Fold SRPBCC domain-containing protein.
Amino acid sequence: MYQIETGIEITASPEHVWSILMDFPAYPQWNPFIRSLSGVAKPGEKLRATIQPEKRRAMTFRPRVLTATDQQELRWLGRLGFPGLFDGQHYFQLAALSNGYTRFTQGEQFSGILVGMFISSMAAATKAGFHAMNQALKNRAEANDHIGHAHDDISKEWY
């Protein structure tokens, strides 16, 4: 198994950040990594996702939703071919901070017999795509934040 995880603190409430993540039709307007996302965020349902890491071709796949916990986590499982070949469990997690802000974590756990062959060529672009999306989500959430806090520039991002 191979895992990539990134995160960022967002000066907005988890409720507001979640509302942006769940507004799938708006993804093309703001998301530089997940260029489109459609379907119902409900366990067992299939989504249609198109991702495009910078300087890479777009890829469309149909992941199955594993978890959709309001204002906490959206997790799906995408597969290449059959189970165990190349699987990716992607997740978005939100944690409320004591100041009313949100810690947003995005990651993916890769598993399967082909991971070793492909991960070295895709890890850097995938991680860069996560960082780009995290920053774009932060920018969008803070542009129309409903908490009413003065915005300190807390551009804390971690790996």
